[in-house]
Amino acid sequence: MTENSNSAAxxxxxxxxxxxxxxxxxxxxxxxxxxxxxxxxxxxxKSTLASEIQNLVFKDGESAPRVVHMDDLYLGxxxxxxxxxxxxxxxxxxLSDSYIAQWRxxxxxxxxxxxxxxxxxxxxxFSGGTPLIVEGCGALNQLSAPLADIRVWLxxxxxxxxxxxxxxxxxxxxxxxxxxxxEEFYAREKSSELAxxxxx
Length: 200
Known about the structure:
two-stranded antiparallel ribbon; alpha/beta; 6 helices
């Protein structure tokens, strides 16, 4: 299903409410850990949407969903695929096997030596029992899609996304580098085609 929204990042009325309602319905049916994957190119509104859904489900449910940001899993500006692999290995796969997910975040303020793949951030864990929302580039892929209950793809035009990027990062230094990784990843994974709902 494809629907229009003025801007997911600006919290277009109805979008977050619709997905939150789907999460609550799954909980009512006995699914204690509905998994929501929110994907789309950089600055398309994924983190804002995830936050809105989290707040709405917490307001109407018994507990707040756990949100995992792909930004915390990437290995720096050239680490999109590494983050996707890490998500599958340490979070989604363990949870699907009824184990506790344990992972270490990437510390962007202390990334280590150039080219040295390290995770120096905080350790996190999640044992389920509440909804899980994973948002970020690469969240929705061929391996993760079958493990999710709700799959969302967000779109925004390139100029809008670039302006948001500049407001967030302060420069376009890594824009092209990251966009190239997105192109390669989405051409291979066909993430938008895996989504149950698409919003632009």
